[in-house]
Amino acid sequence: MRLYETSETGSIEIEIGEDLQARHEELAQRNREWFRERGIRAFDITGSVGAGKTSLIAAMVERLSPEHGIGVIAGDVATTHDAERVSGKGARKVLQINTGGMCHLDAKLVHRALQHLPESGLDLVFIENVGNLICPSFFPLGAEARVAVVSANEGSHVIAKHPAMFQSADLVVLNKTDIADAVGVDLTGPVSDLQRLRPGMTVVRTNCMTGEGVEEVLRALRLA
Ligand SMILES: Nc1nc2c(ncn2[C@@H]2O[C@H](COP(=O)(O)OP(=O)(O)OP(=O)(O)O)[C@@H](O)[C@H]2O)c(=O)[nH]1
Ligand SMILES: [Mg+2]
After folding, report:
1. Which residue has the CA at smallest separation from atom 21 of ligand 1?
2. Which of 42, 109, 45 is nearest to 69 (CA)?
3. CA 198, 22, 161: angle at the middle one, nearest 5?
4. Per-residue pLDDT tens digits for 64-90
């Protein structure tokens, strides 16, 4: 962690407790084992509030459910809106976790939710993290891959400002490309920031309202 003071130049580094990080990793590993033992591929879908996480999951579930047994775990501070939106798209089970104020899911919460999934018949699990570009970065869930969804209206510098999130991601989805011009955002900005931070990382542009780009997301995740 780096603390900047406006009255002085320079910064100080504050280390986040290594013990705590090791504990989170241990709990994530338990989930990884849980998925491995059952032959389930799991994906952690992160991103800011309103970036399009639920829209993307709903589109992927709709496309994949004829051939896959899918479980969805939707994380939010409150309400069951997201679980309701994904229900009816063909998933075997959709669960909502309400964190009651916590700004991220953690591996322990996910582990508890996993106990409520069907014992058999699942081969895919999508986990929607709480809308936040900061806290979830530090909490691995034990998924095979983390997808970071960014929407055009978050501005040109969203990736440069949240390096930890994009360091922890395996795929970046640049959503709401349809409104980029309307909000005056040049999408080459976030893409080049990402290439500086994570050279060679795959970025897929989507419009989850029309489904444009969703097939490419599936290919990037080796789901199609
Ligand atoms: N124009 C446009 N709107 C979109 C797109 N994708 C999603 N939306 C809309 O953006 C709003 C937020 O989308 P959600 O899928 O709920 O976003 P989310 O990331 O799940 O939001 P939280 O769970 O609240 O953090 C909804 O009204 C969607 O219909 C897109 O590609 N283009
Ligand atoms: Mg959502």
Report:
1. 50
2. 42
3. 35
4. 999 999 999 999 999 999 999 999 999
Q: CB count, 10 Å around CB of 3? A: 9
- Residue 12 is predicted with a pLDDT of 54
Q: Which of 44, 45, 54, 55 to mutate to test the pocket of ligand 1 (most atoms within 8 A of CB)?
A: 55
Question: How many angstroms is it from 109 CA to the middle of ligand 2?
Answer: 17
For position 73, what pLDDT does the model report? 96
What is the pTM (predicted TM-score) of this model?
0.93
Who lines ligand 1 at CB under 6 A? 47, 49-55, 76, 82, 131, 175-176, 178-179, 206-209
- The dihedral built from the CA positions of residue 57, 59, 64 and 66, taken in this order, carries a sign that is positive
Instruction: Please enumerate in sequence order all residues whose Cβ is within 8 A of that of 201, keeping only pairs 6 or more positions apart, or say none.
Output: 166, 169, 171, 172, 194, 195
List strand residue ranges (DSSP E) for the chain, in order. Answer: 2-4, 11-13, 41-47, 70-76, 93-98, 124-128, 145-151, 171-175, 203-205
CA distance 171 to 176: 16
Structure tokens at 113: 């939710």
**Domains defined along the chain, listed by start:** 12-220 (3.40.50.300)
The alpha carbon of 153 and the centre of ligand 2 are apart by a number of angstroms equal to 16
Please give the backbone phi and psi of residue 4, each rounded to the nearest 5 degrees, phi first. -100, 140
